[in-house]
Amino acid sequence: MTEFNHITVLLNEAVEGLAINPTGIYVDGTLGGGGHSKLIASKLTTGCLYSFDQDDTAIKYNETNLATEIAEGKVKLVKSNFKNIKNELATMGINEIDGIVYDLGVSSPQFDDGQRGFSYNYDAPLDMRMNQEQALSAREVVNEWPFNDLMRILTRYGDEKFAKQIARLIEKNRAEHPIETTFELVEIIKNAIPMGARRHGGHPAKKTFQAIRIAVNDELGVLEASLEAAFDLLKVNGRISVITFQPLEDRIVKTMFKEKTSIPDLPQGLPVIPEELQPDFKLVTRKPILPGEVEQANNHRSHSAKLRVIERIKK
Length: 315
What we know:
By secondary structure, the protein is of the alpha/beta class. It has 2 domains: 11-103 and 219-312, Rossmann fold, CATH 3.40.50.150; 114-217, Orthogonal Bundle (DNA polymerase, domain 1), CATH 1.10.150.170. 43% of the residues lie in helices and 14% in strands. Helix 2 (35-42) links the parallel strand 1 (25-28) and strand 2. The model has no long low-confidence stretch (mean pLDDT 91). It is found in: Cytoplasm.
């Protein structure tokens, strides 16, 4: 079996948040190392879990990792982006689900495989594609996107204070020759950031790499589309658990959950809110659930994790 070292963050909390019905239909939108899928499957009797991932490595690993659960008919692997959950499930005759879990961002093996180009700690070709069959890669973003687009994604997706300087230096360097590797890009970023600023806030390339990765994989647009599909698919009493690792994702989840659980603006003095205007969803978690001290000590990647859960209460 392919080595796939991945510690699932907020594993029990996310699955407990789903309040599993043993006969229900569930979706793992982000299969990864299979941690959530294995735990959900262990709680099913006649129910079934559809586990999505667009990464070949994750699918191949879990063909073995979840072999028993697959053989028992409890798990079906689906090689597809989670934005496609509605269409993919429809092709299998599934139009309603009892719950879905998302564990967003890049999995540890994607970061740890230096040749995937996600990490600024390994010298590798600029890639960053979660789906290795898609055309757009980090190389194209870095070498072909206009200055204004580069500056926009560095600011919007990376909250990079020196976005303009980095984008300008990328533009200057690529005019001389294509930027091919992660370390070439790291060197450009370092040269664009004043020395004093490089002494604080972690690795100087962290924000730029995050921004390019989000752009390559359209992570925020995909998240919005998938959540909208999940809301539509959810049965009454069905739940959605979402684990985020960075503020942009968490803001989208928080905002979309708030929209679904809020009463629309009504005339003042209305004595009773009509049933049809009551929200279809309720928040299970008023505030996000965070990893405990032990989990944070054992897994440094859990530090920024937040879990939010929502439930459909009527249709």
